[in-house]
Amino acid sequence: MSLLELHRVRKSYGYDENKIDAVSNVDLFIEEGSFVAIVGTSGSGKSTLLHIMGGLNKPQKGTVLLEGKSIYEMRDDQLSRFRRRRIGFVFQFFNLIGNLNVYENIVLPIHLDHLKENQEYIDEILNTLNLEDKKEAFVKELSGGQQQRVAIARALACKPAIILADEPTGNLDGKSSQEVIELLKFSQKKYKQTLVVVTHDETIASYADRIITLEDGRIVGDTDEK
Predict the structure, then answer these.
(1) What are the structural domain ranges in the chain?
(2) Residue 215 gets which letter from DSSP?
(3) Which end of the chain is less packed: N or C, by CB atoms within 10 Å?
(4) Which helix or strand (DSSP H or E) is residue 75 part of?
């Protein structure tokens, strides 16, 4: 069953001779519960495509469906709420709030919707990601790898339909990178998540069930094709 669908999606920047097609007429179906890696050289359109999937960058043409809902037909306030509840994001530079502790960072998206977190579930995530003894710590007290674990925990906290990770290991050393991608895959399996990771690292991509290759905004390779 397709959780996420892109139909003839197009996104360009600039005009005339300076026009760049970042995403060019992409059709893509991502199955529920799968782990997909999107790879390609710098400038191939990987991050733009991921941001379109996540409701962060509206395409000029095409349709994006998540759980059967056309996300770019929503009002801005509806889309913001939908993103917080149904899409988990993990970014290269963590995007944590420095004056909040680990626990507060994790539950922030829930509180933005004036909802109450599931304490038992949050504690389970903290234990899964080996953060149980860091819940009161502040960002500056954590290593890069620990900060990325917090970002993963935050992405999982709302029990989203899909997690989108943009170069999640790009700001980490080799050992931390391997730990983070292994934790992402473990969490994806444990919580039956759908996971899409953008990466330039072939080793990271090898953890995925499916690898999609982009070039000049087009899909030029897909290991899921029969």
Answers:
(1) 33-61+75-222
(2) E
(3) C
(4) none
Tokens of 169: 């290991």
CA distances from 64 to 6, 101, 130, 163 (A): 5, 35, 35, 16
Find residue 13's DSSP bridge partners: 20
| Per-residue tens of pLDDT for the chain, all 226 residues | 799 999 999 999 988 888 888 999 999 999 999 999 999 998 899 999 999 999 999 999 999 999 999 999 999 999 999 999 999 999 888 889 999 999 999 999 999 999 999 999 999 999 989 899 999 999 999 999 999 999 999 999 999 999 999 999 888 888 888 888 898 998 899 889 999 999 988 889 999 999 999 999 999 999 986 4
Q: Which fold has domain 33-61+75-222?
A: Rossmann fold (3.40.50)
